[in-house]
Write a structure and sequence with these properties.
Structural class: alpha/beta
Strand order of the largest sheet: 14-13-15-10-20
Largest sheet: 5 strands, mixed
Oligomer: single chain
Radius of gyration: 44 Å
Length: 635
């Protein structure tokens, strides 16, 4: 179906260009602006365009039924994957001139998959071609040509877009083409058929030594809470077990034997008791129901905390996070960012102008200054990052994930990997690239350079954009409008699930195939070095206190001044004991008369009753004496 619309939409790029011109376009009729002014004068001339709408039954009326489009693509995995692109064999097909490469047989990728869905909806055919301009001279396709977006766009000429029995202009370019200002001035473009954004990658490695790495499973606030819990439980033990109800708890052993403890010493013993329960050990038994209840609660608390800590510690060691020099894009230029270093560098490929364009825009928007390392393309940038000659690089997320997965992780350049002197040989097979009669051969004397670490994506995605289908605006066709209708329909349908599944397969987690790395994490000294040092400090303090106690005990035994020390009431243990004993002797009633003092005229029954009464009195006196037993306190 054909409809009319004002042709000013066709010359919108010309209109923008004329506004930017220093000359007045309405008054200038020079040859430089002649074509543009002609387009401007014909801005409201009606033109025809094709419509494409699916009906309710799912049948689509296609304006391109049975027709063939020529498509200029370029090798850019995973968007476009061209097999044997060098075309060096005798029966090869350089540039796919003979159309030997078709979907699923020589050419594939996310973009190709989408175009095939589009062709099915249009009920038309797409012929894929890729740039190989110098084949007649070199008898092979150069990698820089095959992967060039600019050369693919340059193919949209009248010669390329002309076909027998077809009108000129049934052609377009596709791949991973991002719309820029320059392209908008030269080409017509569709809505994005695939959204993406930039992803930053850097080199990871083993995390730096941390003195408190053993405590990492718990936040510092939780450790503080555990200390407070022990102090509180210690106070509870002191209240329930520390005042005459538990002899084992209120006495301690020192140089003078087991002696009663003071209030501070009882609280210290109570905290010690609470801590021992928390670490599965206890040297005391509660004698009150309150103490037993507290012990049960502390044991339950210990069970939960130990389970959580052990599980978190195992997970922390197995899934140990790898350290990266930067964690986000701002670390490359923002001096306030925690990982910013003046030495941080970013690699930019000269064959990927969108990388430099984003840095230029960031310099304007954020007043950013970057330390830039130049390389030929994204592959070279990734190699510089892997060998730590550049801090980071970035590019389209799907593309950079594909490069890292296929060219690094699947080739052993990860973990405890490295690089081979022969770039065509994997690191694992570097020293044995050829096997003859089960004997390794190294004809090029390859050498390996070990590199520890893995290229890892970091930070959030930035600079969102989309990939579009590009048409040559010189043909003055409106096919891009019709394609927009079909693209929007496909994006709204289940067919986009296929593209989503293809991109999700590029997950880099667990993709390292290096047998020398990426295995289970082994517990090393550095993981527990901090707790070893702290334990050693407590051991030293314990030995130091023991030496001091032994020295005091020895000093008391051999020093002739020790009696004087006791006389001067330094410890006041002996005097207090004697005074309290005298006071209790005065309080205790005289002992009851013995059995032989009983009156002789008493009957046997009366004598036994009297004897029972006196025994009860003796028992009461003994209980009173026990309750008033002396307590010796250290000053």
């Amino acid at each position: 179906m054909r409809r009319h619309f004002p042709s000013f939409l066709l010359i919108l790029p010309f209109w923008t260009k004329l506004i930017e011109s220093k000359n007045d376009p309405a008054l200038s009729w020079t040859s430089e602006h002649g074509a543009k002014d002609f387009s401007l004068r014909s801005a409201f001339v009606p033109v025809e365009y094709n419509t494409w709408n699916p009906d309710g039954g799912g049948n689509r009326t296609s304006p391109y039924q049975g027709r063939t489009f020529k498509v200029a693509v370029y090798h850019q995995p995973p968007m476009v994957i061209i097999s044997d692109w060098a075309a060096e064999g005798e029966n090869s097909d350089p540039g796919n001139r003979n159309h030997s490469r078709t979907f699923g047989s020589g050419i594939a990728g996310i973009t190709i998959q989408f175009l095939e869905d589009l062709a099915a909806d249009f009920n038309c055919n797409f012929e894929y071609h890729y740039p190989c301009p110098n084949y007649e001279e070199t008898m092979s396709c150069n990698a820089s040509d095959v992967t060039s977006k600019e050369l693919a766009l340059a193919m949209l000429t009248e010669d390329f877009c002309s076909q027998p029995n077809e009108e000129t202009g049934l052609c377009f370019a596709a791949g991973s083409i991002k719309l820029t200002g320059n392209l908008a001035h030269k080409y017509d473009f569709t809505h994005p058929f695939f959204e993406s954004s930039f992803k930053l990658v850097t080199m990871s490695g083993s995390p730096p030594f941390q003195f408190m790495s053993w405590a990492s499973p718990f936040d510092y606030t939780l450790w503080i809470a555990l200390v407070i819990e022990i102090l509180i439980i210690g106070g509870m033990f002191m209240f329930t077990e520390g005042y005459g109800t538990n002899d084992e708890h209120i006495t301690g052993v020192n140089g003078l034997g087991r002696q009663p403890l003071g209030g501070a010493a009882i609280y210290f013993e109570s905290c010690h008791w609470a801590l021992l329960i928390l670490v599965t050990g206890s040297d005391k038994t509660p004698t009150t129901h309150g103490g037993r209840t507290i012990v049960m609660a502390q044991l339950f608390f210990y069970l939960i905390i130990l389970s959580i800590y052990t599980g978190s510690l195992i997970n922390f060691l197995i899934a140990e996070p790898e350290a990266t020099p930067i964690t986000k894009f701002e670390d490359l230029y923002d001096s306030l960012s925690p990982n910013y270093r003046p030495s941080n560098t970013v690699c930019v490929g000269t064959n990927q102008p969108s990388m430099q364009a984003w840095l230029n825009l960031s310099a304007i928007l954020f007043n950013a200054k970057f330390n830039i390392v130049k390389a030929r393309d994204l592959n070279d940038c990734l190699e510089l990052v892997y060998q730590r000659n550049a801090t980071a690089t970035f590019f389209d997320e799907a593309i950079i994930n594909d490069r890292v997965l296929r060219q690094f992780l699947q080739k052993g350049k990860c973990g405890d990997g490295g690089v081979c002197s022969d770039p065509t040989v994997d690191f694992a097979n570097c020293l044995c690239p050829i096997t003859v009669n089960k004997v390794c051969q190294n004809p090029k004397n390859n050498t390996r350079t070990s590199v520890t670490g893995t290229i890892t994506p970091v930070g959030e995605n930035f600079n969102p954009f989309g990939y579009s289908i590009i048409f040559n605006s010189e043909f003055l066709r409106t096919d891009y409008i019709t394609f927009n209708m079909a693209i929007n329909d496909i994006k709204d349908s289940y067919q986009m699930i296929t593209l989503t599944n293809m991109t999700s397969s590029l997950d880099l987690a667990g993709g390292c195939t290096n047998n020398n790395g990426g295995g289970a994490v082994v517990l090393e000294v550095r993981h527990i070095f901090g707790i070893l040092v702290m334990t050693g400090i407590f051991f030293f303090l314990g030995v130091l206190f023991g030496v001091i106690e032994n020295f005091i005990g020895l000093f008391v035994k051999v020093c002739p001044c020790c009696p004087n020390i006791e006389d001067d009431d330094i410890f006041e243990m002996t005097d207090n004991l004697e005074e309290e004993e005298e006071e209790e002797d005065e309080e205790i009633d005289p002992a009851p008369p013995l059995l032989n003092n009983l009156e002789s005229d008493m009957t046997v029954g009366e004598s036994l009753l009297e004897l029972q009464t006196r025994f009860d009195r003796i028992e009461e006196l003994l209980q009173t004496a026990i309750m008033k037993s002396p307590k010796i306190e250290f000053l």
